[in-house]
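Sample entry as discussed:
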Amino acid sequence: MKVILLAAGYGTRLQRDISQDASGKYSHLAGLPKPLVPIATKPLISHWMKSLVLHKATDKVYLVTNELYRKQFESWRQDWPQVSLVSDGTTSNEDRIGAVGCIQLAVREGSIADDILVIGGDTLFFDDFSLSAFLSEYEKRKEASPAASLVVSNQIPDEETIKRGILEVNEDMRVTAFLEKPRPQETSSRRACPCFYLFSQQSLPHLDNFLQEDRPMKEKDATGNFVKYLHSRLPVYVYDISGRYDVGSLADYEVCNQHFMNKEKNETA
């Protein structure tokens, strides 16, 4: 298994919030890509790296960044020799190639012919998430369906469905539909689908097929749209998690950072 960390976004909403914050408390975050913002005592993606190393989940990680932030990630990766940087070559949000394009770029640059774990670089999961349990579930699914992929899902309140991609599943937890930001009355499901996917090797050719179709950037930039494309072609199953932290805005960052600060404090007490 190879790992792809998606870190090529420009964090426009978070940077806007920081620039508008009159307190100056978060001025140190200005100009930082979201995956490198400090969560407690280390950058956000270092939390994922620590977990990947602890569980010996992979021997190779590909981090896709943009050219604007590339040097910052080069400095960060000095502590993580198993990480290879891949730049999408862009320098502005208007030029971005989209998150699905970034996955395809990493696959091509790394000549990957293996299962891939794709992790969004702006999110962390609640403390009860177990990477080892997730990987074990994937192996079980592969035994029954060698081409199967596995994605995570968490329950959200009614009012959040219009902001998220929503999964519908059958009794075997296989994805039957993916709805993009539906109204609550359009589905009984409340399964959001954050960017944490374990795609089978057999699914990789579908990246090219997906991107060869004429699609607006909005679709290519939302990884859930590839899940939507894939599930009707190959089996995609769901693994439940209790919740996640997203650092899309400054308010979201404050919640995530405070939780991990409290967690580290309790661990050292």
About this structure: The mean pLDDT is 96.
